[in-house]
Amino acid sequence: MAIRQSRYSPGLVTLHWLIFLLFVVALAAIEIRSFVPKGDPLRSTLALVHMTAGQLVLLLAVVRVYLRFTQPVPAALPGPTWQKLASGVLHLVLYAVMFALPLAGIIFVQAGGREISFFGLTLPHLIAANPDLRSPVKEVHEFIGNAVYYLVGVHILAALWHQFAVKDGVLSRMRLR
Fold this sequence. Notes:
Number of helices: 4
Order of helices and strands: HHHEEH
Largest sheet: 2 strands, antiparallel
Strand content: under 5%
Shape: elongated
Radius of gyration: 18 Å
Strand order of the largest sheet: 1-2
Structural class: mainly alpha
Number of strands: 2
């Protein structure tokens, strides 16, 4: 059994905040893009920023899961069973989103028969071109993207509630040193 500590490792903390920032960048880029007129080159730049941030989320999520299971983590905070269960479910859903959202975006683009590059490297195709799949995958991608706002909001509110109402120092567990 792993040794428990009071804080997450520096690697896990760094990945937590870096992935959060990449989500902010991806979501901001796609939201701003909706205000840019079609034909403006800024639209394609914002789409590229959106996709690159999403691909980085996926890559860093793999590293984060590896570190999560290979490094000691703090013990669960004391509290009612429903609260521990809710926390576990929310964290599990957030981890699922880190994989599902970028993968849905990749599948959406590849279903349209387009290549996806990642810093100059062409990614292998997860699926063959399939125009009929594009629309439903886009809907899933957008649904998950919109859900991120609510999931992260609940996560932040819960952390603030723990920090300032319960006063259990929860924020110190994920603080950058």
